């Protein structure tokens, strides 16, 4: 499961982690991404995470559930999560198929995602349901 190149990156930006998915991930790669991100939250003592999915033109039910799970794991480790970059066609398909991101905050792009984290870091109760 941990063999092969990473198709995602996790970079630190101050108190935040920016996790970018570069191409579609299969289920085992999604689990690797999840494990790596949750581990980095602890090792970097991150207060927030932006997950950028702008490169994805498809988001299936397993990927949607995994993103929600990642956000919940991050919350349990003390970090707020914002998902950014959901493409219009992906958003349309998700709504048509009854899929969503649950209570995870979303934003249009990285800039808005970081601003959302800044708001959440100042007032942790400001997270939207």
UniProtKB/TrEMBL annotation:
- Could you tell me the superkingdom of the organism this chain comes from? Bacteria
Cite the InterPro entries for this sequence: Bact_StressResp_Reg, STAS_dom, STAS_dom_sf
Cited Gene3D superfamilies: STAS domain (3.30.750.24)
List residues of the STAS domain. 33-117
Q: Which PANTHER family match?
A: RSBT ANTAGONIST PROTEIN RSBS (PTHR33745:SF1), RSBT ANTAGONIST PROTEIN RSBS-RELATED (PTHR33745)
Protein name per the record: RsbT antagonist protein RsbS
């Amino acid at each position: 499961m941990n063999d092969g190149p990473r198709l995602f990156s996790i970079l630190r930006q101050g108190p935040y982690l920016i996790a970018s998915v570069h191409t579609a991930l299969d289920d085992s790669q999604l689990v690797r991404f999840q494990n790596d991100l949750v581990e980095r939250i602890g090792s970097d003592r991150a207060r927030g995470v932006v997950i950028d999915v702008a490169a994805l033109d498809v988001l299936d039910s397993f990927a949607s559930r995994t993103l929600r799970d990642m956000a919940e794991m991050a919350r349990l480790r003390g970090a707020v999560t914002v998902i950014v970059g959901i493409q219009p066609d992906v958003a349309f398909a998700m709504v048509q198929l009854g899929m969503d991101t649950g209570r995870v905050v979303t934003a249009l792009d990285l800039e808005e995602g970081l601003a959302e984290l800044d708001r959440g870091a100042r007032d942790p109760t400001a997270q939207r349901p």
